[in-house]
Design brief:
globular; 136 residues; five-stranded mixed sheet; single chain; alpha+beta
Length: 136
């Protein structure tokens, strides 16, 4: 796979999608009805077509395995300046979820654009917040 990078001014980091592909996410044995490779290819294709508005990268296990597939939508530098934090999306198993993530990221992501309503129902707490809630 070839990765392309658009040149951006210093400090103009775009919205970034971090796609979990660790032990459970992306595993056809856990979610056999999902085209995991097709999802990742679609995200990369949309990123390339965005002309630098958003980027995609993969990661090993992000933690919430019971909510696979997980995608973290990190805000752009501007979104962060506006106070946004990363949004964790769980159960991103179908094309509708992937298209909602793409649409949100292409619109600017956290702090810039509102997420699609259906996507808000799939938002999960980051693992550190989930652990803190469990201890209470």
């Amino acid at each position: 796979m070839t990765t392309t990078f658009a040149l951006r001014p210093f400090g103009a980091r775009p919205c970034t999608l971090v796609v979990c592909r660790g032990c459970c996410c992306g595993d056809a044995r856990k979610n056999p009805g999902t085209d995991h490779a097709g999802q990742l290819a679609r995200l990369h294709q949309a990123s390339e077509a965005s002309a630098g508005r958003f980027a995609v990268r993969t990661s090993d296990c992000l933690g919430p395995c019971g909510q696979a597939n997980v995608i973290v939508v990190q805000p752009s530098a501007e979104g962060r300046r506006r106070g946004a934090r990363a949004a964790w999306i769980g159960w991103a198993l179908d094309e509708d979820a992937v298209e909602d993530v793409i649409r949100w990221a292409d619109g600017g992501g956290p702090g810039i654009a509102e997420p699609p309503a259906a996507l808000t129902l799939q938002m999960i707490p980051p693992p550190s917040q989930a652990r803190r809630r469990a201890r209470r």
